[in-house]
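Researcher: Quick test of sequence recovery. Tokens follow.
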């Protein structure tokens, strides 16, 4: 059995008994029942994931999966493709948006070349797991083979497990890949059964007056490839991306090892759609972070039944919003640990 099948088979339900125990305590803390809203729900989810009524966060990491997209050639992005490689070199230097928030939250940034169309192999701090030099152009046929798609998910599982072995027990999904909002819109359109007009927006400042072109490219890619809307690997291979597969793998690897994983914006949501088609229980292990400005993100989150905690008009990616939400995950842990119950307070 391959790593993906093996890992997926290990994914179980949340521990509802421990969740009840955690809920009981949360309801007895010295505050009106329910008054800490989503922070309370978060603590109960953490308890169910970790099987611990007093969940603890030891080490936090955001995994940034970097890759390029063959569909770039269709003119669907406003930035040069080389930015993927250039920007990837800045993650280990601590110089990108997500790095700033990672410093603020005392978390590690792990950068992975899973499919950059360029060479970053001499850059210290980048983990080399390149599957190929960018995907193929999805308007002409599949972005990658089914085997490559499975491999991309397995790279995510492997990287997550390596980090768990080093003591990380809270993850965030991040990415860098010029053109990846196009792949994300294609995935969201296929899974939700929507026309790309309903899922496509600015990405990294694509001009509004050219939006009809981006939408048409996505329509064409779906029409040419006819992905099976029920088969996550088929969708990933035909209209997805290597970094999107990598992030789906992080989610699957976390779920299999009962580890919480915080999801970032639109591209992460596309990964969650793929991961949850492969194994629906993965959703229970995902902590949504923020509501991306991208119109497709709102719909993907609704479809997944995940309610974001933050609404900050973010549209960067890299895992930036997920790392910001690390603060909220730690707040939930602290609420549970620090607050008295009515009994403890001697009421
Ligand atoms: C300098 C720079 C840094 C970024 N960091 C994240 N993205 C974000 O923008 C890209 C997706 O948008 P699109 O589909 O329009 O290309 C991804 O790399 C995403 O992570 C960036 C984009 C740029 C230009
Ligand atoms: O929501 C995101 O993650 C996003 C949106 C635009 C560009 N890059 C990322």
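Model:
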């Amino acid at each position: 059995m391959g790593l993906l099948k093996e890992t997926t088979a290990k994914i179980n339900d949340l521990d509802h008994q421990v969740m009840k125990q955690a809920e009981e305590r949360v309801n007895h803390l010295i505050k009106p029942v329910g008054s800490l809203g989503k922070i309370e729900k978060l603590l109960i989810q953490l308890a169910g994931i970790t099987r611990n009524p007093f969940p603890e966060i030891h080490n936090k990491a955001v995994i940034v999966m970097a890759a390029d997209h063959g569909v770039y050639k269709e003119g669907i992005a406003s930035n040069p493709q080389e930015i993927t490689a250039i920007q990837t070199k800045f993650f280990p230097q601590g110089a990108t948006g997500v790095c700033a928030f990672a410093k603020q939250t005392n978390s590690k940034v792990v950068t992975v070349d899973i499919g950059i169309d360029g060479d970053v192999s001499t850059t210290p701090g980048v983990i080399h797991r390149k599957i190929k030099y960018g995907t193929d152009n999805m308007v002409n046929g599949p972005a990658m083979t089914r085997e490559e798609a499975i491999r991309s998910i397995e790279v995510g599982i492997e990287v997550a497990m390596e980090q768990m072995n080093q003591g990380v027990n809270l993850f965030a999904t991040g990415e860098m890949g010029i053109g990846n909002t196009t792949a994300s819109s294609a995935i969201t359109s296929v899974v939700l059964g929507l026309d790309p007009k309903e899922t496509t927006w600015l990405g990294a400042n694509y001009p509004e007056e050219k939006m009809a072109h981006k939408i048409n490219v996505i329509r064409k890619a779906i029409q040419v490839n006819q992905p099976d809307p029920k088969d996550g690997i088929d969708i990933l291979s035909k209209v997805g991306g290597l970094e999107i597969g990598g992030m789906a793998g992080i989610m699957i690897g976390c779920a299999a090892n009962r580890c919480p994983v915080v999801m970032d914006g639109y591209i992460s949501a596309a990964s969650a759609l793929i991961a949850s088609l492969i194994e629906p229980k993965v959703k229970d292990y995902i902590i949504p972070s923020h509501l991306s400005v991208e119109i497709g993100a709102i719909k993907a989150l609704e479809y997944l039944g995940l309610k974001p905690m933050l609404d900050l008009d973010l549209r960067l990616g890299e895992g930036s919003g997920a790392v910001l939400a690390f603060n909220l995950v730690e707040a939930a842990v602290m609420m549970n640990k620090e607050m008295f119950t009515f009994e403890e307070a001697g009421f």
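The chain has two domains: 3-55+333-338, 60-328.
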